[in-house]
Amino acid sequence: MALTSLAPSTSPRSLALQPPSLTDEVLARLGARGLDLAAVFKLLSDLQDDLRAEERKLAARRESTAGGPDAPAAAPQAPDGQSQLNEGGDQVGRLQLRLSGAKEQLEEVSTALQQMQSIELPAAQAKDAHEAVEAMEMQRRRLEEDLECLRQARKKQRLQHAQEHRFVR
Predict the structure, then answer these.
(1) Cβ neighbours of residue 40 closer than 8 Å, sequence gap 6 or more
(2) pLDDT band at residue 115, thresholds of 50, 70 and 90?
(3) pTM confidence score
(4) Domain residue ranges of the chain, discontinuous segments joined by +
């Protein structure tokens, strides 16, 4: 699932040109529930950036403590380099924990979106059913009107028939 597909468009021009969509409505409802999607996406993006930066630093430290790719094979490791390496690994671990927490928040938001969409689907079906009932009601009224017209025509026909029989006698 692409993260950008859930994020609302925030440019003034795109907001002015686009009518409110189901996504905008769902985002507004989630915001009303106290879930700030923009903050969740920002946090997730920041955490991913921090994680990548720490991984690059860690790789650079590993390379520098190992003496780099051109260093002799027996380059001694400085004890300070090892502690920096351990510290970098710890930072990466903490960032990964923060990232997994943000992913859990994102999953909660995704679940809430799915629940809202499942709520709106029956609402749409109820609207369709209501429209079908209204159409059937109109058809029933037309049939009643047609039936009344047929009754009136039948009544006229009987009266005409009775009048004809009077003249015949």
Answers:
(1) 102, 105, 106, 109
(2) confident
(3) 0.34
(4) 21-68+77-168
